[in-house]
């Protein structure tokens, strides 16, 4: 469930078609029963092998739309929607290819089969979670490259000013609370961290990255996105808080990919402290080749190595095998080139501020040895290895508990995590 690499012709085609999301057409809706029962937003995934593909479907009286957030496909209209309770069929045409969803509404869920070019995969949708109501004062906005970015603020009770931390989420469509569209349910790990900080007199802001959640509009074209954009956003938040009299010292907490982003941003914006949680201690090319080795035959693995070598040299690769398009498609190569330029060990070694590096022994995505590598690169840092903590900061004892923790917001943070962070910040 935790793999991050997608290999398969069906996904390569979806990724290609997603880039053509401006080609719309008239929508025709055929109704046998009232659409009222299904009207609204539904979230779920197509169960493509190796990794589910998150989708968002919204039905209205006149039809509906499909969104694939990971690839920028937004509100693409269905050609037809037919609902004869419980049977539901909806389809759309993308660049001459027909995509068909054939399912049923049962027990509050829509499930069935998705078909494209003769290939069929199951899909399931559940009603979209309504956004939690929040007061206007719980959010702040700043100007960043490309527009306005919003963040949620957690302020302790009592009179300020307060020390503050900028919390940076991990890779992919992971939101400010630590939840991912890639997975069902929520774990709320970063939300819990923010709330625990506030309960102990430390303010924080956490934000959806550009292209995600409330900052989705900042995503722009995949071909134009760079790793430096994420660093610039984080640095902008640090600088904003440092200029606000409501806050004193301003530090960064970076989780997973947010660790590398946070290291670079801390140096750029002169943050006062830095905390890495489950951050990779190796360059992304090493991590990527390790993941690919577990999934690819020898010929494709060799090609992947050659592509990565070219990307590390700053060269784009025009010819990529169809099976590797989902990983190395041309539109994502500029981002990968910018990402490969950063080595976590080199970045952390440059920091001349207090640094805490945290890893978990039950982390199936980033092993605790990566935290030890970061600590070795910055010997003056503090190292905290938490027994039994997984990647979403919960305590687990086996693989089943690990997987379940990704979707359990009731499961508390691992023992020792907040105690370690608070002791470091004090």
How would you describe this structure to a colleague?
- The protein has 426 residues and is α/β, with parallel strands linked by helices.
- It is built from twelve helices and 18 strands.
- The strands form two sheets. Strands 1-6-7-8-9-10-2-3-4-5 form a ten-stranded mixed beta sheet. Strands 11-12-14-13-15-16-17-18 form an eight-stranded mixed beta sheet, with helices on both faces.
- Strand 11 and strand 12 form a beta hairpin.
- The longest helix is centred in the middle third of the chain and has 16 residues, at 227-242.
- The chain starts with 8 loop residues before the first helix and ends with a helix.
- Residues 1-32 have low confidence and may be disordered.
Brief rundown of the structure:
The protein is of the alpha/beta class.
Mean pLDDT: 87
* Helix and strand composition category: alpha/beta
Give helix % range. Answer: 25-40%
Distance between the termini: 37 Å
Uncertain runs with pLDDT below 50, 5 residues or more? 1-32
Number of helices: 12
Which strand-content bin applies to the residues? 25-35%
Give the helices and strands as they follow along the chain: HEEEEEEEEEEEEEHEHEHEHHHHHEHEHH
Radius of gyration: 22 Å
